[in-house]
């Protein structure tokens, strides 16, 4: 990596059905040079050397032995979620690669949804809405 060059991070893609959300990509670009899986697969040998991290979003890209063998300079795999049970930690650590995640990233939204569901249930909101809408049925 040249002086002043941002470290490369491998992502499945940006946008679309399975890629990173655009606003997340904007944030990552402040600190990393994003390399998509498509770019990596087009030139594994050259591009693979530039990648120092892999950002896993919604369990993608899949981390396997073949991928890690093609990333000689990878140091960390960052998972954008609470768990890492979809990652083979023993195999990953055998490459000297660290794994991290975001354990509290969804704590507040999860609590908000839980409270909303409890209030809706206690106040029978779904049933109340259904009983006041012509043609609707109770759930």
Q: How do the SSEs run, as a string of H and E?
A: EHEHHEHEHEHH
Q: Strand portion, in percent?
A: 15-25%
What is the count of structural domains?
Answer: 1
CATH architectural name: 3-Layer(aba) Sandwich
* CATH class descriptor name: Alpha Beta
**Largest sheet data:** 5 strands, parallel
Average pLDDT works out at 89
Based on secondary structure, the structural category is: alpha/beta
InterPro entries: D-isomer_2-hydroxyacid_DH (IPR050223), D-isomer_2_OHA_DH_cat_dom (IPR006139)
GO molecular function, one term: hydroxypyruvate reductase [NAD(P)H] activity
GO cellular component, one term: cytosol
Domain D-isomer specific 2-hydroxyacid dehydrogenase catalytic: 34-113
Topology, element by element:
Blueprint: E1 8-11, H1 22-29, E2 33-36, H2 37-42, H3 44-50, E3 51-56, H4 65-69, E4 76-79, H5 89-93, E5 98-100, H6 107-122, H7 125-131
Parallel strand pairs: 1-2, 1-3, 3-4, 4-5
């Amino acid at each position: 990596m040249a002086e002043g060059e941002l470290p490369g991070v491998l992502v499945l893609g940006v946008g679309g059905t399975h890629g990173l959300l655009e606003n997340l990509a904007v944030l990552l670009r402040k600190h990393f040079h994003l390399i998509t899986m498509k770019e990596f697969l087009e030139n594994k040998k050259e591009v693979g050397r530039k990648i120092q991290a892999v950002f896993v979003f919604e369990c993608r890209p899949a981390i396997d032995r073949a991928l890690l063998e093609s990333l000689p300079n990878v140091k960390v795999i960052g998972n954008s979620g609470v768990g890492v049970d979809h990652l083979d930690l023993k195999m990953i650590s055998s490459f000297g690669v660290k794994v991290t995640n975001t354990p509290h990233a969804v704590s507040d939204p999860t609590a908000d949804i839980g409270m909303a569901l409890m209030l809706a249930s206690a106040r029978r909101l779904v049933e109340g809405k259904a009983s006041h809408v012509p043609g609707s049925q109770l759930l």
